[in-house]
Amino acid sequence: MNKHNNIESFISGNMGAFESLYNTYVGKIFNYINSFIYDPDIAKDITQNTFLQLWDSRSNLDPNGNIEGYIYSISRNLLFREIRRLNIHMNYAIHVQEEMKEEEESGIEEKISRDMIEEQILSLLAELPESRRRIFMMRWSNGLSNKEIAEKLSISEKTVSTQIHRTVIFLKSKIGSALMTVISISSINL
């Protein structure tokens, strides 16, 4: 059977003619695709899909046309589609990794900065009278309200408020308003 008759037979749905085309071109198509992506599993899938698409589109073929060119054209289109898909996935993965890295670095920098500021505040608090330091720490570290602190220490809320206010003024004078905001002291109701 000559090549032309084999193609006509394939177009009419002859499985033997299809197997002959498959056996003739499967290795070439696989090598062609793998030379671009260097992934035998993906190359094998694209090769299989090439021949499935060839079979599905056989009724549209020209018996006098270039069957080899048509097979390569199918494989090339499938290959480019796969490369676009892989690039989209890779670009997304890179984007996600970069975002995670930025968030992680930002979080680390923020923690280091916060830790350094807290250390500085703690050393400054050591300069204060014990009672004022204790009131401030109950508010800052333990998150107690002025009322809760007053009850625990058996003093008035006004005394608590005054002591916290004096401590905040002292700290602002030593480290500045901006740093006070960073460590959330601004949440203290004066």
From TrEMBL:
InterPro entries per the UniProt record, alphabetical: RNA_pol_sigma-70-like, RNA_pol_sigma-70_dom, RNA_pol_sigma70_bacteroid, RNA_pol_sigma70_r2, RNA_pol_sigma70_r4_t2, RNA_pol_sigma_r2, RNA_pol_sigma_r3/r4-like, WH-like_DNA-bd_sf
Source superkingdom: Bacteria
A Pfam match: Sigma70_r2
Residue ranges of domain RNA polymerase sigma factor 70 region 4 type in the record: 119-167
Hydrolase in keyword set: no
NCBIfam families, A to Z: Sig70_bacteroi1 (TIGR02985), sigma70-ECF (TIGR02937)
Name this protein carries in UniProt: RNA polymerase sigma-70 factor
Source organism of this protein record: Bacteroides sedimenti
